[in-house]
Amino acid sequence: CQLYGKERASGQALFSLPFFDKLSVLTEQARQVNSQGFVPKPKVGQGIENDAATIISVGKIPAINRAVFDFNATLTFEEFCALVDILSHSELNPDSLNGFVFEQPTRASEGINGLIKALVYLRQSGLAIRIAADEVALTQSDCLALAKQDIILNLKIQKVGGNVAAHRIERGIELAIGQMPVSFVGGTFPTALGRAYDQHCAASLKSATLPGDGWLPSTNWFSGDKHLIEEDFLLDQPGVSTPFTKPGLGVTPNWEKIENWRLNDPREAFRRLRQGEPSEIRFELSGDMSYGKLYEKLNNGRLVDWNI
Fold first, then answer.
1. Are strands 240-242 and 100-103 parallel, antiparallel or unpaired?
2. Would you give per-residue pLDDT tens digits along the chain (308 residues)?
3. Which end of the chain is more exposed for a tag (fewer CB within 10 A), N or C?
């Protein structure tokens, strides 16, 4: 981040919360995450009624004034409007939702226009909830169109093409509209090596002023023999991370641990995994759907070995 210009010394992390069977468990988890200095990021996208109940439950927690709700592009525009109608007619004070962000609520197939229409409907309903783009924020032209409409950009660094590409995106937007967009650095649950990179990017991007997934230490999901560097992540204060300061990414790879996870034949391992055969890659799914069937479904019917 010193090479590209250090815009901030540290940043607050978003903390993803999965689906829970009971709202009471969700609200308790959200309280705990908030008390630890993180911004809670509950998953939503389980139907309008369930999503509304989740958002309202978090909105009722007095200590929480910021939260991001991750929809993963699950709603049509019509479904989104129905959700907003429930929220705008709920017992919640609309002001209690002012610090909330809806991340990619509309389907990726509805494109940028789906998010723009969603934001317009929120404003027409008197709600100050903000919209963030994820799945449709890919290229500089995408991000420019979104920034013009005051939509937050989730800059997943690997998704947009790396740190250089992310800097080009924000500079291009600044030149086009005369101001920086508003963004945060997202994440894709990388190892410590990838997360060290995310944190340097989040510290060097001018636009990345919001709490982001990229600040969360990877040891929240990869610890022990899966923590692939010698160093511990640096916390400036609870929930606030600081990039490593030594040369490069500032980390020392633990090659012994890395070797333990090496795939001897990656193509064959992925082929076997996707075809439901014994594989070096272990992947557990809830329910009775196999990884191969789910992969085929999510990739529009492509055969499981289409890109191997």
1. unpaired
2. 989 999 999 999 999 999 998 999 999 999 999 999 999 999 999 999 999 999 999 999 999 999 999 999 999 999 999 999 999 999 888 888 999 999 999 999 999 999 999 999 999 999 999 999 999 998 999 999 999 999 999 999 999 999 999 999 999 999 999 999 999 999 988 999 999 999 999 999 999 999 999 999 999 999 999 999 999 999 989 999 999 999 999 999 999 999 999 999 999 999 998 888 889 998 877 777 778 888 887 777 777 778 88
3. C
Backbone angles phi, psi at 17, to 5 degrees: -120, 130
pTM: 0.90
Question: Residue 23: which residues within 8 A CB-CB, separation 6 or more?
Answer: 53, 54, 57
Q: Is 194:157 a contact under the CB 8 Å cutoff?
A: no
Tell me the residue type at 284: E
- 299's tokens: 């990739």
